[in-house]
């Protein structure tokens, strides 16, 4: 040891230091601590995972201990090594059909070996960093796969609910269902019905007591209640049977045809990986909804998550457990229960181990019919109506339907392959579905191209273009988002030929060789869509900076924008013309969809009528996103004080009860004229319509003058005067007025709505969102991506 350490000669002029001046003093070993939020979250997840793990093992036909092994390994291994700290892994309902088919074909020990090989494949994919590629799979295929698995689970478990035994496939289960209905087991049906009733009604318990009781997971309550009733009534039913752990079957060498085993490994790898990666992305969205947590936890690292899932499957398969994937139900429960780190996931795995070792006598009291009812409910929930509406809105319902039917009738891998083939077919159909029309209006030939302009449409395009006579005035309208080289060359060659023969060509919508999303370039045009009308001088070419042409070619002075008709008719017409030429081709398809389906905005945005507030610009929103209500001063009259003007109350009721918006935002702004008028108004002044309206803002004025009531302030600086202080406080006050509306209060109690305040500083072009810090209402500014704090 001494030979490896160089010695240094003593220097009498050198002062020896034990530590550098900036080093902290040595401390003892760091103590491992678990946050209280992680402890409570792990208990909530454990109470959900325990019955579900047993139920999924029952549904697959595996030993029931295999579900507990997978739950423990998923919590400990995947929780420690995975890239999504708050995602909870374990036996997933999405793997039930795959695992059941493997057990039926190859037996349990070979299925465990397949799980190990699938884990090795996941490790390889994680090392190749292909995790992001899995997200390229169409959501319609993923949702269709899960829906098909859900149908398969529900139909199979229905036989156990009725007191029978499920068959090997959905068609066989459907054929055997009439005979099963003729021989129903009353005790099994009673226990299953009680389980389903508790599962359905427990989350809907009303009142304050209901809010407290709903913290107990519905799955635990359903299984526990059914077990207690079955035990008290003395019902003779098949129950959970957990053999001694000494007899637990571990993985063996895979036996069977090589191609079949390879297909089994690929199927297991595909389902485990896609479900886990999509679950990690979903957990990121849940974390983003909790203020302050996203900065602490961070986004999921998908390649690491794939490595963690692979390691967990290797361990689970080796120990005789089920295949493992990220589980949406447990993950969402983990986030909602307040977990702040991966310790909650790992601790839930420890609790599963303790339960598997010490709670065997209690677990063996659970009737199998109760677990079957629980898993059947999970299978039914996998057929999501929201997913069906989404794929229908995106015109991918055929992909969803083919994938679902393929999984139900043929199997998971075959169903996914059919879904991919259908998705490719739909994409090709959209690519080739180009409509080209020709019509003559007032001597002008219009050629309208709707859809993608590719080489497949070149013959039709060429045929229609040759219908245009030589020397004719022509307008070519391109209503699409893509043009390939062959179509570009065809259109460009015809353009040159036609103009050389004396004709004129105007290409609207987009210019050849440019993307449809790019603004058209006009010589000398420096305006943008948000600039004032007085700067929009790009309609026609100008011969001089301040003149425009009459039809006869002579110049005449441009009308004064401030004069009669200048700021009204001419500027409005120019703006509409610019919209029809530049913007309408881009939004026409989206507006047509909204016209067909109706509006489904997610937010009610209540702001001031000030002309400087462009809601779509400062929120980066588009058609159908916001339900906007504007009035002088962004005021929300208290219920009963409208005095004949129910417009704001009607808009709130319509947005909450009919449109089902998920949030309401009250947005104030700097330099608000209504707040200035309110400050200078007299207490009894209600003579004019404006004064009568501004009386709804008097509670905000009183709140500013009352030091005992918290108003609003901007983080990091003082308000720029009394007007800005009133503008900030007015947002806080109007949010309180909103809570007085019955529809808003009801939606807030049910957790269906959130209220948020916003302040926009016009001069700084800076948005601020309202947060609460130690009981104080603070507007914190929203930073752009990459903007320093």
UniProtKB/TrEMBL annotation:
Residues 1-30, 534-571 are annotated as: Disordered. Its main location: membrane. It comes from the Bacteria. It is a multi-pass membrane protein. Keywords: Membrane, Transmembrane, Transmembrane helix. Residues 536-559 have a biased composition (Basic and acidic residues). It is found in: Membrane. Pfam families: Pro_CA, Sulfate_transp. The keyword Transmembrane applies. The chain crosses the membrane at residues 39-59, 106-128, 140-162, 182-203, 215-238, 258-283, 345-362, 368-385, 397-428. InterPro entries: Carbonic_anhydrase (IPR001765), Carbonic_anhydrase_sf (IPR036874), SLC26A/SulP_dom (IPR011547), SLC26A/SulP_fam (IPR001902), STAS_dom_sf (IPR036513). The keyword Ribosomal protein does not apply. Residues 37-393 form the SLC26A/SulP transporter domain. Belongs to the beta-class carbonic anhydrase family. Catalyzes the reversible hydration of carbon dioxide to form bicarbonate. This is SulP family inorganic anion transporter. The lineage of its organism: Bacteria, Bacillati, Actinomycetota, Actinomycetes, Kitasatosporales.
């Amino acid at each position: 040891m001494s030979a490896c350490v160089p010695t240094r000669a003593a220097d009498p002029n050198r002062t020896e230091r034990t530590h550098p001046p900036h080093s902290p003093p040595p401390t003892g070993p760091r103590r491992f601590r678990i946050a209280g939020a992680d402890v409570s979250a792990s208990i909530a997840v454990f109470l959900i995972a325990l019955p579900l793990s047993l139920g999924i093992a029952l549904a697959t036909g595996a030993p029931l201990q295999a579900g507990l092994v997978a739950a423990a390994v998923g919590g400990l291994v995947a929780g420690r090594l995975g890239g999504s700290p708050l995602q909870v892994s374990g036996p997933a309902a999405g793997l039930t059909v795959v695992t059941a088919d493997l057990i039926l074909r190859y037996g349990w020990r070979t299925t465990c070996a397949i799980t190990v090989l699938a884990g090795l494949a996941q490790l390889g994919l994680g090392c190749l960093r292909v995790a992001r590629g899995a997200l390229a799979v169409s959501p319609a295929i993923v949702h269709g796969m899960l829906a098909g698995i859900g149908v398969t689970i529900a139909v199979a478990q229905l036989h156990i609910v009725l007191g029978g035994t499920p068959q090997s496939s959905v068609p066989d289960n459907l054929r055997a269902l009439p005979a099963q209905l003729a021989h129903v087991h009353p005790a099994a049906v009673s226990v299953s019905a009680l389980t389903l009733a508790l599962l359905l009604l427990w989350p809907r318990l009303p009142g304050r007591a209901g809010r407290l009781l709903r913290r107990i997971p519905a799955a635990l309550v359903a299984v526990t209640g059914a077990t207690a009733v079955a035990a008290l009534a003395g019902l003779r039913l098949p129950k959970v049977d957990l053999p001694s752990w000494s007899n637990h079957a571990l993985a063996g060498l895979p036996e069977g045809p090589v191609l079949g085993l390879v297909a089994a490994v690929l199927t297991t790898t595909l389902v485990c990986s896609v479900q886990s990666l999509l679950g990690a992305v979903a957990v990121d969205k849940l974390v983003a909804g909790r203020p302050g947590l996203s900065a602490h936890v961070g986004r999921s690292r998908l390649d690491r998550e794939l490595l963690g899932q692979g390691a967990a499957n290797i361990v689970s398969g080796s120990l005789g457990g089920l295949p493992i994937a990220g589980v949406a139900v447990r993950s969402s429960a983990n986030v909602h229960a307040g977990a702040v780190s991966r310790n909650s996931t790992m601790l839930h795995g420890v609790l599963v181990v303790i339960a598997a070792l010490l709670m065997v006598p209690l677990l063996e009291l659970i009737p199998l019919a109760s677990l079957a009812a629980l898993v059947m409910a999970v299978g039914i929930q996998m057929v999501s109506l929201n997913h069906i509406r989404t794929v229908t809105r995106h015109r991918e319902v055929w992909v969803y339907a083919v994938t679902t039917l393929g999984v139900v009738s043929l199997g998971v891998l075959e169903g996914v392959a059919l879904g991919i083939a259908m998705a490719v077919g739909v994409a090709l159909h959209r690519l080739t579905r180009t409509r080209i029309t020709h019509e003559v209006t007032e001597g002008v030939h219009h050629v309208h191209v709707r859809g993608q302009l590719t080489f497949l449409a070149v013959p039709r395009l060429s045929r229609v273009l040759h219908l245009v006579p030589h020397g004719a005035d022509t307008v070519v309208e391109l209503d699409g988002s893509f043009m390939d080289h062959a179509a570009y060359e065809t259109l460009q060659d015809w353009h040159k030929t036609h103009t050389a023969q004396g004709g004129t060509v105007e290409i609207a919508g987009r210019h050849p060789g440019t993307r449809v999303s790019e603004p058209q370039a006009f010589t000398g045009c420096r305006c943008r869509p948000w600039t004032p009308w007085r700067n929009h001088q790009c309609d026609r070419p100008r011969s001089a900076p301040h003149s425009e042409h009459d039809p006869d070619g002579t110049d005449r002075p441009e009308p004064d924008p401030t004069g009669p008709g200048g700021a009204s008719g001419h500027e409005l017409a120019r703006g509409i013309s610019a919209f029809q030429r530049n913007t309408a081709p881009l939004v026409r398809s989206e507006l047509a969809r909204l016209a067909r389906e109706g509006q489904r905005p997610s937010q009610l945005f209540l702001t001031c009528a000030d002309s400087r507030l462009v809601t779509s610009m400062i929120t980066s929103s588009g058609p159908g996103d916001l339900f906007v209500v504007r009035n002088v001063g962004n005021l929300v009259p208290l219920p009963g004080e409208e005095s004949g003007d129910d417009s704001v109350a009607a808009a709130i009721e319509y947005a909450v009860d009919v449109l089902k918006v998920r949030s309401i935002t009250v947005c104030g702004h700097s330099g608000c004229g209504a707040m200035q008028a309110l400050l200078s108004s007299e207490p009894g002044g209600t003579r004019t319509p404006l004064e009568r309206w501004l009386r709804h803002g008097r509670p905000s004025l009183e709140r500013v003058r009352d030091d005992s009531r918290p108003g609003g302030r901007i983080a990091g600086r003082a308000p720029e005067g009394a007007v800005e202080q009133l503008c900030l406080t007015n947002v806080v006050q109007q949010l309180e007025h909103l809570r007085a509306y019955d529809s808003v209060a009801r939606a807030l109690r049910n957790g269906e709505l959130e209220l948020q305040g916003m302040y926009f500083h016009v001069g700084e072009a800076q948005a601020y969102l309202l947060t609460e810090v130690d009981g104080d209402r603070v507007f914190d500014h929203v930073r752009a991506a990459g903007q320093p704090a």
